[in-house]
Design a protein that fits this description.
By secondary structure, the protein is of the alpha/beta class. The protein contains six helices and ten strands, in the order βββαββαβαααβαβββ. The longest helix is centred in the C-terminal third of the chain and has 16 residues. The protein binds adenosine-5'-triphosphate and magnesium ion.
Length: 232
């Protein structure tokens, strides 16, 4: 009988000998790994280890220098310009510094994602209100980002990352600048996203976050992948 790998065990992201150089400096060096559907991955390592670079390569925020990256079978070195939006819609990105647009309200910041996808007004309204409720910002939808606390801004950024229903969240130190209670709220939202069957890839240097039941840790140091726990 023919044996087939169950569909859900096929990697959604594969890296083969990936390196990224900025001029002569290697930010990532010879990284090979697979990421599977519904993984919760921590990219862990000290400042300068290559965590942000790793995330940027995935959504083509930067081109890679060497090697290959496949995202659901799309080869990022060969992707044509017209396909880049299709790649980016697979990811919801949460930045450490939020990157909310200061001249737009919380509602507008989140709605932009859906407008870019071509959804119509009534659907946009429904989904944005739903996701703002989920992150506990229902009352703040008309507020401007700079009038919010850091924790609230980060929750708005989480709402923006999740509203398009991406399969994968890329989170770059999403709790880095938050107090313990706000950080907890962000982790709970990511846990819920993961429990719904989605994939999370989160960069952190905070070792206290790693002590969780279901996660894999990719340890980076000086651009190299030095350890994967649990190993395969
Ligand atoms: N645009 C760039 N131009 C030049 N060098 C860069 C650039 N981006 C990153 N680097 C370098 O690449 C290396 C990895 O940087 P990266 O930002 O990926 O690290 P990190 O693990 O995210 O660190 P941190 O914890 O401080 O955010 C660093 O030495 C950094 O200086
Ligand atoms: Mg970083």
């Amino acid at each position: 009988m023919e044996t087939m790998e169950p569909l859900e065990r096929q990697p959604i992201i594969r890296m083969f000998h990936v390196s990224k150089r900025f001029e002569q400096k290697a930010a990532l060096l010879d990284v090979s790994l697979d990421i599977f559907p519904n993984d919760f991955i921590f990219l862990w390592g000290p400042s300068g280890a290559g965590k942000s670079t790793f995330l940027k390569l995935l959504y083509l925020g930067e081109p890679l220098s060497q090697g290959q990256i496949l995202v659901e079978g799309m080869n990022l070195s060969r992707i044509n310009r017209k396909t880049i939006p299709q790649l980016r819609q697979k990811f919801g990105v949460i930045f450490q510094d939020f990157k909310l647009i200061p001249t737009k309200t919380v509602y507008e910041n989140v709605a932009l994602v859906l407008a870019a996808k071509g959804l119509k007004g009534s659907m946009i309204q429904k989904k944005v209100n739903q996701v703002l409720g989920m992150v506990g910002l229902g009352e703040k939808s008309d507020a401007y980002p700079l009038s919010l606390s850091g924790g609230e801004q980060q929750r708005a950024a989480v709402a923006r990352a999740m509203v398009g229903e991406p399969g994968v969240i890329l989170a770059d130190e999403p709790t880095g600048s938050l107090d313990t209670a706000s950080a907890r709220t962000i982790m709970d939202l990511l846990d819920q996203f993961h429990a719904d069957g989605n994939t999370v890839i989160m960069a952190t240097h905070d070792q206290s976050l790693l002590n969780r039941k279901q996660c894999r840790i990719f340890q980076l140091d000086g651009g190299r992948l030095v350890n994967i726990t649990p190993g395969s």
